[in-house]
Amino acid sequence: MPHDLARPTLPLRPELAGVEPYGAPQLDVPYALNVNENPYAPSAEVVADIAESVAAAAGGLNRYPDRDFLDLRADLAAYLAVESGVPLAAEQLWAANGSNEIMLHVLQAFGGPGRTAVSFAPTYSMYPEYARDTHTGWVTGRREADFSLDPQVARDTIAELAPSVVLLASPNNPTGTALPTSTVLAVLEAAAQVPGGCVVVVDEAYGEFRRRGTPSALELLADHPHLAVSRTMSKAFGLAGARVGYLAASPALVDALRVVRLPYHLSAVTQAVARAALRHAPTLMAQVGSLRDERDALVVWLRERGLQVADSDANFVLFGVFDDRHAIWQGLLDRGVLIRESGPDGWLRVSVGTPQETAAFKDALVDVAGL
Ligand SMILES: Cc1ncc(COP(=O)(O)O)c(C=O)c1O
């Protein structure tokens, strides 16, 4: 074909041709229960402190921000020490624009051409995108029918594929399943045998919603320099709009992430918002307990109506199984309730909202599914 100067060709990477950007529909509906947000907005007191901190940061915006943001990292370490009882140094923390960017940093540092990242499906649907964007091979092993991970399956998969990165969401999205420590340890042992090394990321985006007695992988950090535990302020803190994710790991692992980050990736405004929010952690997270109770009650309610429901340690519930899940999803949407078509065929995922939102969801579901 002759080259048309008026319409030059865009040299799009072939694997991106025809690919839609990731994202759930952002629809204007009365009840948005589709992206696992915290339904409670920050209080007036927290908003005022954030606004004051941002104003102070604004006065210095002619300068680039602190590249290493050790103050924020120290604040995050202090928060985790209280939340999970694990003492950490600021050098063991890293932060970025959402845990999405944290995971991208991990794959930029430890993935790459000729390397493989592994997870166990069904799991968070962004993982393959981080792999694609870093030219890392992507392979999923399987979870069991109840969405648990069989430690032997995990060991065999890792031994066979020799990945350089394993991503384990716990609690998992979209199933809500948390992994027992014994399974995480089995994965860490198998990863330690991989020639050339293998980093294991336990993605605890929903960690604060775990049921009592469910441990955090943070407890394993001291003995496992190839472990990273990622968290986010998007869920329990109710700050999805601020875009702050973070990770705890050995200082050596964090130093590798510092190499691949863009200079000044975390704006002075973001740092100010995060530090102000951390000063109010107990207030911001006051509703975590009631969201957990609301979730447990929703699981019981759905089961009482004969539905299958995955055990959940997160702020959402996966339920089914419907012959035509799209029809149920659409019926709910027609009644103003937006949930997510996610997980294996026939399953749907609903985020835990306020009691009013949950009541609206239940009423609509009874109507649509004839429960
Ligand atoms: C398992 C899991 N990890 C990470 C994220 C990313 O969260 P964020 O980038 O808002 O920190 C999400 C978001 O829904 C998630 O479900």
What would your notes on this structure say?
InterPro entries: Aminotrans_II_pyridoxalP_BS, Aminotransferase_I/II_large, HisP_aminotrans, PyrdxlP-dep_Trfase, PyrdxlP-dep_Trfase_major, PyrdxlP-dep_Trfase_small. With 371 residues, the protein is an alpha/beta fold. It folds into two domains: 22-40 and 287-369, Aspartate Aminotransferase, domain 1 (Alpha-Beta Complex); 46-283, Type I PLP-dependent aspartate aminotransferase-like (Major domain) (Aspartate Aminotransferase, domain 2, 3-Layer(aba) Sandwich). The protein is built from twelve helices and twelve strands. The chain has helices at residues 44-58, 70-84, 98-110, 127-133, 151-161, 181-192, 251-260, 268-279, 281-284, 288-304, 325-334, 355-369; strands spanning 31-32, 93-96, 116-121, 137-142, 165-169, 199-203, 227-232, 245-249, 308-309, 316-320, 337-338, 348-351. The chain has a seven-stranded mixed beta sheet, sandwiched between helices. A three-stranded antiparallel beta sheet has the order 9-10-12, with helices on one face. The longest helix is centred in the C-terminal third of the chain and has 17 residues, at 288-304. It is globular and about 55 Å long. The protein starts with 30 loop residues before the first strand and ends with a helix. Bound molecules: pyridoxal-5'-phosphate (PLP). Pyridoxal-5'-phosphate (PLP) binds at residues 36, 98-100, 124, 169, 173, 203, 205, 232, 234, 240, 245.
